[in-house]
Write a structure and sequence with these properties.
Elements: E1 3-7, E2 10-13, E3 18-25, E4 33-39, E5 46-51, E6 58-60, E7 68-73, E8 78-83, E9 92-100, E10 103-106, E11 110-115
Parallel strand pairs: 2-11
Antiparallel strand pairs: 1-3, 3-8, 4-5, 4-9, 5-6, 7-8, 9-10, 9-11
Length: about 120
């Protein structure tokens, strides 16, 4: 059983930056593909970014390309989401996600609020 704990959310003005972290425990972190999703009020959860277990492949939603960067530190069992040029429409609860062989795990989420 993998546990995921996000941190780093908060309130930021438009144009600002935040760095989210997700600490994993209970599994072999380096074997998992990791991702970030987000869910805004009244909307469905949506994909934000993904990084494979070896960190040589990343993928991003079109809405965040060029502004967000996903990375991981397998030695520290942590995945990061560096968010820059934040927009009010980035306001959401951000969730960490892990997957391996069809087994999926979610964190509890961290709130990001971008004021205009």
């Amino acid at each position: 059983q993998v546990q995921l704990v996000e941190s780093g959310g908060g309130l930021v003005q438009a144009g600002g930056s935040l760095r989210l972290s997700c600490a994993a425990s209970g599994g072999i972190f380096r074997l998992y593909t990791m991702a970030w999703f987000r869910q805004a009020p009244g909307k469905e959860r949506e994909f934000v970014a993904l990084i494979n277990n070896g960190a040589y492949m990343t993928n991003y939603a079109d809405s965040v390309k060029g502004r967000f960067t996903i990375s991981r530190d397998n030695a520290k069992n942590t995945v990061f989401l560096q968010m820059t040029s934040l927009k009010p429409e980035d306001t959401a609860v951000y969730y960490c996600f892990a997957v391996r062989y069809g087994l999926t795990y979610w964190g509890q989420g961290t709130q990001v609020t971008v004021s205009s």
